[in-house]
Amino acid sequence: MTLRKRLVTACFLAISLPLASSPVLAQKKAATPPAPATSTAPAEKPTPYDDRLARLSEILGSVHYLRTLCGERQSSWRNSMQKLIDSETANEPKRRERLTAAFNRGYRSFASVHTTCTPTARSAEEAYRAEGATLAAEIAARYGN
User: Fold this and answer.
1) 3-class DSSP state of 5
2) Is 21 left (phi over 0), alpha (psi -120 to 50) or beta?
3) Alpha-carbon gap, residue 65 to 121, rounded angstroms
4) Which residues does 139 contact at the CB level (< 8 Å), separation at least 6?
5) How does pLDDT run across 81-117, given as a tens digit for each residue?
């Protein structure tokens, strides 16, 4: 089992939502109330490392933008993010949306400031790469088992 799959802690809860059954003015109330309906959609339970994972997603978006800006033609950082999203958010569309939004936020934050590759952009990319590596190691060490 891969580390990413071990990180996935999917707990689904079935939530019962009773329907309000109030009589309409001109109708008589039924002798037996209708059975409450149950929701079959699983509730998404946040993992204890979701905030760190969102930060890692932002970092991957930033690094992807900066590396592309400075000449890298492969989309390895985006591909890494896609693999992370696929393994972490199976059957959890809201988590998928949050991680995708974090990646895009990281990408756009640098796109709004850097339009050409400069020494500052390269320095930021190196710093973000180091932060991402540290964060990934912390997540794996603390939540990987």
Assistant:
1) helix
2) beta
3) 10
4) 7, 49, 52, 53, 56
5) 888 888 888 888 998 999 999 999 999 999 999 999 9
For residue 35, give the 3-state DSSP assignment: coil
The two structure tokens encoding residue 131: 């932060």
Helices (H), 8-92: 50-69, 76-88
- Bridge partners (DSSP) listed for residue 38: 16
Residue 105 burial (CB < 10 Å; 0-12/13-18/19+)?
middle
0.70 exceeded by the pTM? Answer: no
Angle of helix 93-111 relative to helix 50-69, nearest 10 degrees, comes to 40
Residue 27 φ/ψ, nearest 5 degrees: -105, 155
